[in-house]
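Predict structure. Chain length: 296.
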Amino acid sequence: MQVTSFDKQLQDKCQMVNRVLKGILVEQSGIDAELRKAMEYTLAGNGKRVRPALVLWCCELVCGGVNHNAEIAAAAIEMVHTYSLIHDDLPAMDDDDFRRGKPSCHKAFNEATAILAGDALLTLAFGILCKEVAQPAIAVRLIDELAVAAGPAGMLAGQMADLRAERVEGGGELLEDIHINKTAKMFRCAAAMGAICGGATGKQYDCLCEYGLKVGLGFQIADDILDVAGTTEQLGKTAGKDARADKCTYPKIVGMEESKGLAARLANEAVEILEHFGEKAEALRQLVKALLQRTR
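Prediction complete.
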C-alpha cells in the first residue's frame, strides 16, 4: 500500500506521542508492578492517536511548531481517551473482549485491574499537566479544557446517555446530543489544547474549537457506519455490537445513506472553517478527508 504524505505525517505524530507517553511512564515511581503493566499494555495498543495528533497540528498551525506544552497536552488527552476505552469495554458498560486489535484490558488482566488502570491514566493525565507545563496560566487552561470535555457534562454525560438509549426509540436530537458529548467534545478539547499551547488569538481559538467539534461528530458518525460495514479485523474491536445492543446510532435512526451524507456535510463544514488559516492548515484538511474515508 502506498503511504501518502499525510499518512507519513500522522505516523510521525503517532511516534512522537508514543515516545512522550513512554517517557512519562518511565518517570513515574511507586506504581504497583501489575498496575504498571496494565497501563503500559493499554497505552501500547495500536491506536490511531487522532486526538493527540490534533493537539500537535493545532499548535503547529498557530505558532509554527510543536512545543513541550503541546507534547504534554497530547499525552494527557491520549491517557484520558485510553482510560475511557478501558472502562467502556468493561462488562458493565459495552462488554467488549477486544480493543485496538488485542484483548481488552479486563480480559488481558482482570476487571479490578482494568478499572484501576483506567483510574490511574485519568489521574496521571491531570498530574502531568500540573507538573510539566511550566506556565501556571496555561496549565490551568489546559486542565480546565480537559476536565470539562471528559467530565460529567461532557464525555461521561454522553456515555451515560448512550447506555440509557439502548433498546429505546430515539430521534435525531437525542442522537446528536449523545455523539457531541461522547466524542465531539473531546475532539474540540484536542483542538483547543493545541491552540492554547501555540498561543492562539481569540479568533484562532474559536475557529479551531468549532473545527474540532465538527470533526469529532463526523468521526463518530463514521464510527457508527463502520460498526455496520466493517469487520472485527478492520476495527480492532468486535464489529456489529451497536446493532446487537440496539444502540442509538446514525445508521439505525436515519439510515446508512443519510449517515454518509451527514458525515460528508460535516467534513465540508470543517474544511470551510479552516479558510481562516489559508494554506497552513493543509494537514487539518487532510485529517478531515482521512477520517471520512477511514476503514478502522
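Summary: The longest strand covers residues 98-99.
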